[in-house]
UniProtKB/TrEMBL annotation:
<dbReference type="GO" id="GO:0051233">
    <property type="term" value="C:spindle midzone"/>
</dbReference>
<dbReference type="GO" id="GO:0051256">
    <property type="term" value="P:mitotic spindle midzone assembly"/>
</dbReference>
<dbReference type="GO" id="GO:0000281">
    <property type="term" value="P:mitotic cytokinesis"/>
</dbReference>
<dbReference type="GO" id="GO:0005096">
    <property type="term" value="F:GTPase activator activity"/>
</dbReference>
<protein>
    <submittedName>
        <fullName>RGAP1 protein</fullName>
    </submittedName>
</protein>
<dbReference type="GO" id="GO:0005634">
    <property type="term" value="C:nucleus"/>
</dbReference>
<dbReference type="GO" id="GO:0007266">
    <property type="term" value="P:Rho protein signal transduction"/>
</dbReference>
<dbReference type="GO" id="GO:0032154">
    <property type="term" value="C:cleavage furrow"/>
</dbReference>
<feature type="coiled-coil region">
    <location>
        <begin position="28"/>
        <end position="69"/>
    </location>
</feature>
<dbReference type="GO" id="GO:0030496">
    <property type="term" value="C:midbody"/>
</dbReference>
<keyword id="KW-0175">Coiled coil</keyword>
<dbReference type="GO" id="GO:0097149">
    <property type="term" value="C:centralspindlin complex"/>
</dbReference>
Length: 142
């Protein structure tokens, strides 16, 4: 009778362990599915960040090009002798003031438009804080 009771206790313990194993496997499957969804979202987010950074760089390059053209126009208008006949003294002084302000703003050493953006948004998310390490993407899953 004692042996039968021991076997019954062992059988009940085995049943509880099998139920726990099934529950753990279900949780593992749910976690794996959630992980797969999050990995897809991460991949999309990385691609979107990359696209936006490329757009930003193109826009900054176009802006710098336009600023250079504007500076050249200012210089041309101020230095060209024929411009003195076209422009009044007031217009020339206004242009020189604008050119000086524009040059001071664009020629500040170590200060670019992108650094101004980074500084203003640093508390939110800096592009330097984003890791583009894709070694996690290549991990072999078992």
């Amino acid at each position: 009778i004692r042996t039968a009771r021991c076997f019954e206790a062992l059988r009940q313990r085995c049943c509880r362990l099998e139920q726990e194993q099934r529950r753990a496997r279900e949780e593992l499957a749910c976690a794996a599915a959630e992980r797969a969804v999050l990995e897809v979202k991460l991949k999309h987010a990385r691609n979107q960040v990359e696209v936006e950074m490329k757009k930003r760089h193109r826009a900054e390059a176009a802006l710098e090009k336009q600023e250079r053209k504007l500076q050249l126009v200012f210089e041309l208008l101020l230095q060209e002798p024929s411009g003195s006949g076209v422009l009044t003294a007031e217009q020339r002084s206004l242009l020189s003031a604008l050119a000086g302000r524009h040059a001071a703003r664009t020629l500040v050493p170590g200060r670019s438009r992108s650094s101004a953006v980074d500084e203003s948004c640093q508390s939110l998310l800096s592009h330097s804080d984003i890791s583009y390490d894709r070694t996690d993407d290549d991990v072999v899953r078992k």
